[in-house]
Amino acid sequence: MDVESFAEGILAAVVSAEGDRANVVAAAAAPRADGRIIATPYAKQLAKDLKVDLSRSPAAPAATFAAPARAPAAAPAASTSVSQLRGTTKPFTALQQAVNKNMIASLAVPEFRVAYDITTDKLDALYQKLKPKGVTMTALLAKACGVALASHPTLYAAVTPDGAGVTYSDSINVAVAVAMPDGGLITPVLKNSDSVDIYQMSRNWADLVKRARAKQLAPDEYTTGNFTISNLGMYGVTAFDAILPPGTASIIAIGASKPTVVATEDGMIGVKKVMTVNLTADHRLTLKAVIENPEQLVM
Fold first, then answer.
1. How far is CA 278 from the centre of its chain?
2. MF terms per GO, please (predicted)?
3. How high is the pLDDT of residue 141?
């Protein structure tokens, strides 16, 4: 399953077919005649953060591109070495402190987790069809969650601060976790994910990510989510659990989609793309929903 980069840039070339193993240790190739560096957007951003000139870094083999691993390798020695950090104390940034506070607050919530494997062949096909029109995989996932949540209001509700009741939201606002260049984490919100069309949602997402990295988001653009998506699939992570953000009922953790041997509809063996999703939810809300609708137990 394709997953778009959170960094800006263009795809300069497709240099390896799906399933190929990229050679990252071959001898350096001659530079391009036009002087242009072919690098992934993430590699360019990382090189910029590390103050690395990719044109002078160890080159990738011919007809390949600069991978993120090249940037740290070419980075100048850090002003503070690992040995110098030993025995010292470094304060958290304001953003890290806020994230830490939320993590600690989440420990007070009685959570439970479930995992489910999802076949993504049809999703991949739809993405390939819509990708030329500017649709992103993040928008597709947010849209899918928004449509599903419309039938399950408890999963985007919230327990009241005093713990005495539940507040049901009048809109479905899907937050998506995004890593910041400084190591922090922010969750831009795709509002009304169940009703906004996929094309507008993709445009909204591109704008949110751009302004998030420039630290230009308004508070209501990253604090109003009532359901969260955390996607580590682009890093090759196959499955993980996500911490429930305080004040919300659920969060979904999405792993990488990979070819998997499965039983087909005709009882034979086949290979399909499968990804594992893990849902973390507030047990106070979901248990109540099952008790009120016991038919769910036998459906």
1. 13
2. dihydrolipoyllysine-residue acetyltransferase activity
3. 94
Same domain, 80 and 165: no
Domain of residue 67, residue span: 1-90
Active site residue 283: yes
**Structure tokens, 197:** 């069309």
CB-based contact 115:277 (threshold 8 Å): yes
Query: Do 76 and 120 fall into the same domain?
Result: no
- Pairing of the two strands 227-231 and 174-176: parallel
pLDDT on residue 1: 57
Residue 180: is it exposed, middle or buried by C-beta count within 10 angstroms (0-12/13-18/19+)?
A: middle
Q: What is the mean pLDDT of residues 122-143?
A: 94
The pLDDT tens digits for 37-90 are: 666 666 676 667 666 676 665 544 433 334 444 444 444 444 456 778 788 888
Q: What is the pLDDT of residue 126?
A: 93
Task: Identify the CATH number of the domain in which residue 272 sits.
Answer: 3.30.559.10
* Nearby residues of 158 by Cβ (< 8 Å), 6 or more positions away: 166, 167, 169, 226, 247, 248, 249
Catalytic residue among 115, 283, 290, 296: 283
Tell me the CA end-to-end span of the chain in Å, nearest whole number: 30
Query: Residue range 252-272: average pLDDT?
Result: 92
Determine how many CB atoms are found less than 10 A away from the CB of residue 174. 29
